[in-house]
């Protein structure tokens, strides 16, 4: 992989993000989209992870089931859905291929196509085009010291204002992390909680970042970013994962995602 030029590095350090067009070829993007299509066609999702129950007790059971499904997904390929895509019995209200927000979190380990493109990600989540509210990645992937996590977001098709491109608050990566998601002790419910609260970000500070197919967006772990809902008729596929500078870094034992004996975090350099 080519190095960043001094001006690109300076822009990343100033803004907290950087667009690199032409990172993947059209053929590489098409191959990954084809695999996504095959996985969605074959997907098998437990009913308790897609059913909306009506009573409070059942709601709690559903929430706990969904939490377990999420918290144990770090070393598996699982599907996460948009809101409102199921009826009360768990039947799809929209075509299944249009129901998914993301697939995570171990495609890099289990799927040969994604493995060949990113052989050493820490975490990855193919985003299929859903809304993502304003956040800092370090709220979920906390390290000490901060500043050791880098997001890689690759557009597998054009990301536009109409289909949910990324938006950033340039320069917001220097103000620390105000909210953290913490994994609760095993067996407790709910399985996660938040320390602190997400500030109310001024919508006027966000800058849209439309990019063409194949572009890579580098995302500083503390920069504030979001995606608007995809209001277009089509998809907006992206492949996203995170890298961590491991030397001298403590991966918080409270993060929801933890390396396992079966799937430790792979090293980029050995
Ligand atoms: Fe993010």
Architecture overview:
With 270 residues, the chain is α+β, with helices and mostly antiparallel strands. It has five helices and 15 strands. It has helices at 6-15, 26-42, 56-71, 107-110, 112-117, and strands spanning 17-20, 77-81, 100-105, 123-124, 132-135, 143-144, 149-155, 166-168, 179-183, 192-196, 207-209, 216-220, 225-227, 238-244, 250-251. The longest helix is centred in the N-terminal third of the chain and has 17 residues, at 26-42. The site of fe (ii) ion (FE2) has 4 residues, from loops.
Secondary-structure blueprint of this entry?
Layout: H1 6-15, E1 17-20, H2 26-42, H3 56-71, E2 77-81, E3 100-105, H4 107-110, H5 112-117, E4 123-124, E5 132-135, E6 143-144, E7 149-155, E8 166-168, E9 179-183, E10 192-196, E11 207-209, E12 216-220, E13 225-227, E14 238-244, E15 250-251
Antiparallel strand pairs: 1-12, 2-3, 4-14, 5-13, 6-15, 7-12, 7-14, 8-11, 8-13, 9-10
The chain binds fe (ii) ion.
What's this model, at a glance?
The protein has 270 residues and is an alpha+beta fold. The protein contains five helices and 15 strands.
Number of strands: 15
Catalogue the ligands.
fe (ii) ion
The computed structural class is alpha+beta
Q: Roughly how much helix do the residues carry, as a percent range?
A: 10-25%
Shape: globular
Instruction: Spell the H/E element sequence.
Output: HEHHEEHHEEEEEEEEEEEE
What Rg, in angstroms, do the CA atoms define? 18 Å
Whole-number average pLDDT? 85
**Largest sheet data:** 5 strands, antiparallel
The proportion of residues in beta strands is 15-25%
Kindly report how far apart the N and C termini lie.
17 Å
């Amino acid at each position: 992989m080519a190095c960043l030029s001094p001006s690109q590095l300076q822009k990343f350090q100033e803004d907290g993000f950087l667009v690199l067009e032409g990172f993947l070829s059209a053929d590489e993007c098409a191959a990954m989209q084809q695999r996504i299509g095959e996985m969605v066609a074959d997907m098998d999702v437990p009913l308790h992870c897609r059913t909306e129950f009506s009573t409070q007790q059942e709601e709690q059971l559903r929430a706990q089931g969904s939490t377990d499904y999420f918290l144990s997904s770090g070393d598996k390929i699982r599907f996460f859905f948009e809101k409102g895509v199921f009826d009360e019995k768990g039947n799809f209200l929209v075509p299944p291929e249009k129901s998914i927000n993301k697939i995570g979190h171990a495609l890099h380990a289990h799927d040969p196509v994604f493995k060949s493109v990113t052989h050493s990600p820490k975490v990855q989540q193919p985003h299929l085009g859903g809304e993502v509210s304003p956040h800092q990645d370090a709220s979920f992937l906390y390290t000490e010291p901060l500043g050791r996590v880098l997001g890689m977001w690759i557009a597998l098709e054009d990301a536009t204002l109409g289909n949910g491109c990324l938006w950033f608050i340039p320069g917001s990566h220097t103000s620390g992390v105000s909210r953290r998601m913490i994994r609760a002790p095993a067996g407790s419910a709910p399985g996660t909680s938040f320390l602190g609260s997400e500030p109310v970000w001024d919508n006027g500070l966000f800058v849209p970042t439309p990019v063409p197919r194949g572009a890579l967006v580098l995302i500083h772990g503390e920069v504030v970013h979001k995606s608007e809902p995809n209001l277009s008729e089509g998809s907006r596929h992206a492949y996203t994962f995170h890298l961590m500078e491991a030397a001298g870094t403590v991966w918080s034992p409270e993060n929801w995602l933890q390396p396992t004996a079966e799937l430790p975090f792979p090293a980029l350099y050995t």
